[in-house]
Amino acid sequence: MAIIEVEDLVKTYDRKVAVDGVSFTVDEGEIFGILGPNGAGKTTTVECVEGLRSPDGGTIRVDGLDPRRDRAELRTRLGAQLQQSDLPDRIRVGEALDLYASFYRDPADWRELLARLGLADRAKTEYRKLSGGQKQRVSIALALIGKPKVAVLDELTTGLDPQARRDTWELVEQVRDTGVTVVLVTHFMEEAERLCDRIALIDAGKLVAVDSPAGLVSRVDGEQRVKFRPATPLDVTLLADLPEVTRVERHGPQLIVTGTGNLLHAVTSVLARNQIVAADLRIEQAGLDDAFIRLTGRKLSE
Amino acid sequence: MLKIVNTEWKLFLREPSMVVFAVLFPAILLSVLGAIPALRTPDPNFDNQRFIDAYMSSLVVVTLAFLGLNKLPTTVATYREKGVLRRFSTTPVHPARLLVAQVLVNVIAGVLSVVLLMVVGRVVFDIDLPHHPLGFVVTFLLGMLSLSAIGLLVAAWAPNARAAGGWATVVFMLVMFFGGVYLPRFLLPDFLNTIGEYLPPGVEALQDSWLGAAPDPVHLGVLALVTVAAGTVAAKSFRWE
Ligand SMILES: Nc1ncnc2c1ncn2[C@@H]1O[C@H](COP(=O)(O)OP(=O)(O)OP(=O)(O)O)[C@@H](O)[C@H]1O
Ligand SMILES: [Mg+2]
């Protein structure tokens, strides 16, 4: 069942169109990713969902509520972690949670929440003395303190080191396992691929595709690449003529063969028949990266 | 609401420079000035009062100006810049409560400061308590609110925390000057003193209620007017992000 419905969302800043007719739905209990390059309009989209910005066009429903008209009620059902938001330098973690808990009728037990987020020993630490990863976890805690049905997390792992990032991913999965629907904004492929049940690809304010990670990848037709260095010169047409092969490129001594089906087997058979030894043979599956390039004509990560 | 005030109060106590300037400084300044014999000798040129008696109202101005025109605008602008106010808007509580809490914290700090000033003045230098207590309390609160409204206006219009600090400092200096903090008011030319009478936080009304009779209702009226006008404009033009 859909808990968030966005239809034809349009948002313009001054004269710049930031979001241009975006529609998608988020099902209850899933981790829904919003993926796109910098400036794509991801934050603007979720801020409209959170009721922090009023759309210039389109309709939004969150758990049956209109985020602008039913603001007050929405606040009790939706928790948000903003892309840019700090706490006062000298507030202690426990104080912040206790304070925010007091804003809700039926808040979560903040001590338990801190323990779950691995911050139990930081309750008396001032906010300014926390590491980047700890600050992000406090942010997640504050987004969850009101026992929301939906949590919107905007770029929660940006600026974290790989270990902290993986820890945070585990946390998001735990949150989902408690029944919370998670909307996750990110521009990390790996993050989206690993966490999300479904992903909305956004580029330049427009929705490019909504699908599961596997579904998006399958749109590039199971394309694969085989890379190797032939030990002796090789007639490239032998490979190019294979039905499985769509393209052969030469990069210095390296050959890159792109194709579909049982590409690896076809290529190695030709090499064996011609008694050519292949050094550094590698095969690469198409990933979300390739899907993104195929769908938008450009690379996601800078 | 009580919890927000309580938290903001704790945050205030953790900023040593704020506590020193807003709460302790006027009493310290009084002690330093009072240590100079000439300043605690009755002066025939000045109604046979001592300098320190006449200077008490200016010391109250120091507290009010610091809280309303330094602490308030910089804290609020910083909260906006760091996204503290925005995070509040994601909860069921409106971020305006945080601004109200700031003003309440300032009232508490201001009361503490003035009480400390009175105690030091009374015990050490034998300075009278305000002769018209009710008038003094009303003037003090109106002075506080009017400067707070101006401070919020600065926070509302300044593009960022740095600018807010800069603009607020200019207003702060003017208020301190007209409040007779830099130069005692009896040394200022008459026309400057007349301006000062009407400017927030109402140094003349503080002076009247301390040394003489009731404050002039016109002075209080002007303070109330400034509070309402600046407060309304600030509320209308305030940006939460
Ligand atoms: N408050 C604003 N005023 C004017 N323009 C804005 C504002 N916020 C965002 N924009 C513009 O709108 C576009 C979309 O911004 P948005 O923040 O939604 O992108 P994003 O996908 O979240 O990017 P990022 O990955 O960098 O966070 C950008 O071109 C940005 O410059
Ligand atoms: Mg963003």
Automatic annotation (TrEMBL), chain A:
Localization, per the record, is: Cell membrane
Q: Which SMART domains match?
A: AAA
Record keywords: Antibiotic resistance, ATP-binding, Cell membrane, Membrane, Nucleotide-binding, Translocase, Transport
Q: Which domain of life is it from?
A: Bacteria
Q: How does it sit in the membrane?
A: Peripheral membrane protein
- Gene3D superfamilies (alphabetical): P-loop containing nucleotide triphosphate hydrolases
Q: Which GO terms describe its molecular function?
A: ATP binding; ATP hydrolysis activity
> Which Pfam families does UniProt cross-reference here?
ABC_tran
Sorted alphabetically, the Gene Ontology cellular component annotations on this record are: plasma membrane
Q: Which residues form the signal peptide?
A: none
Instruction: Provide the ABC transporter domain boundaries.
Output: 4-229
What is the name attached to this protein's record?
ABC-2 type transport system ATP-binding protein
TrEMBL record, chain B:
Gene Ontology terms: biological process = response to antibiotic
Q: How does it sit in the membrane?
A: Multi-pass membrane protein
TM annotation in the entry: 20-39, 51-69, 99-125, 137-158, 164-183
Provide the primary localization: membrane
Q: Where does it localize? A: Cell membrane; Membrane
UniProtKB keywords: Antibiotic resistance, Cell membrane, Membrane, Transmembrane, Transmembrane helix, Transport
Entry GO terms, CC: ATP-binding cassette (ABC) transporter complex
The terms under GO molecular function for this entry are: ABC-type transporter activity
- InterPro entries the UniProt entry points to: ABC-2_transporter, ABC2_TM, ABC2_TM_bact-type, ABC_2_transport
Q: Which residues form the ABC transmembrane type-2 domain?
A: 17-241
Q: What does the similarity note say? A: Belongs to the ABC-2 integral membrane protein family.
What name does UniProt use for this protein? Answer: Transport permease protein
Q: Which organism is it from?
A: Saccharothrix carnea
